[in-house]
Design a protein that fits this description.
Layout (H helix, E strand, L loop, with lengths): L14 H6 L8 E5 L2 E7 L11 E6 L5 E3 L7 H23 L3 H31 L4 H70 L14 H22 L4
Antiparallel strand pairs: 1-2, 2-3, 3-4
Helix pairs in contact: 2-3, 2-4, 3-4, 4-5
């Protein structure tokens, strides 16, 4: 027996099982040989894990179950499925509590590997069900795995929809802020349009040029200058207010 076998040394499984296993667990699948079934599954994955942790479930021809983890009984596969169930419930709570796009992205980053693991687990259990069609336990395991796969798929859709909503809301808020900034800039331009001509004329006629207006004792030249400045400002205001065609 090779020392590098991933299967427990105490398992008296067909040699074909050990021969077909490498140094790593590989994909999730079901092996059938001499009436024995070896179901190779993955523990709930983390997004930063490059290699998956394998769990092995061996069914003897008489229906006796063994597991590399948990207790060697049919309940071992149920415990394996329960871990995924608890993980999905935690993600469901995180989706409900998420308040920003980063929160939703974190959930989606974790849910992706979990969903893929559930899809491949469902396929592996379906292969076991086809190889041993009369075992009701395998049918129940397959159905439970599919239910979890569907739950993960719906949870991913909910998280994506919520993320899209948050992104759209942020874009709308940014558009409103940009509109307010544009309006403030426009109003500033209008003020400049009104007062720039006055300031210009005041600078010209308030200089040291000898134009004779400084000798007037009445305020009429001043008011004429102000009126001309306001008129020019109004013309510029109308020009700025015209929108693009």
């Amino acid at each position: 027996m090779p020392e590098s076998s991933l299967l427990p040394a105490t398992w008296n499984v067909p040699t074909e099982f050990r021969d077909r296993l490498g140094k790593q667990v590989g994909r999730q699948r079901t092996m059938i040989a001499e009436g024995h079934a070896l179901i190779i599954l993955h523990a709930p994955p983390n997004p930063d894990e490059m290699n998956r942790k394998g769990r092995f479930f061996w069914r003897e021809p008489d229906g006796t179950w063994h597991a590399s983890e948990f207790k060697g009984s049919p309940d071992a596969l149920n415990q394996h499925l329960d871990e995924f169930q608890q993980l999905l419930e935690e993600f469901d709570d995180k989706v409900d509590e998420a308040a920003s796009s980063l929160d939703y992205l974190e959930v989606l980053n974790h849910l992706g590997p979990v969903y893929r693991a559930l899809c491949h687990m469902t396929q592996a259990l379906q292969n076991a069900r086809e190889a041993i069609p009369k075992d009701k336990l395998i049918i129940d395991f397959r159905d439970s795995a599919y239910r979890l796969e569907r739950a993960a798929e719906l949870l991913i859709e909910d998280a994506k929809n919520a993320l899209d909503y948050v992104v759209a809301r942020q874009a709308e808020e940014q558009a409103r802020v940009s509109a307010r900034i544009e309006m403030s800039s426009h109003r500033l331009n209008l003020l400049i349009a009104y007062f720039f001509p006055i300031a210009t004329l005041s600078a010209i006629f308030g200089s040291n040029f000898q134009h004779g207006y400084e000798q007037y004792q009445t305020p009429w030249p001043f008011w004429i200058m102000v009126s001309m400045g306001l008129a020019l400002g109004f013309v510029i205001h109308i020009f700025l207010k015209r929108g693009p065609r």
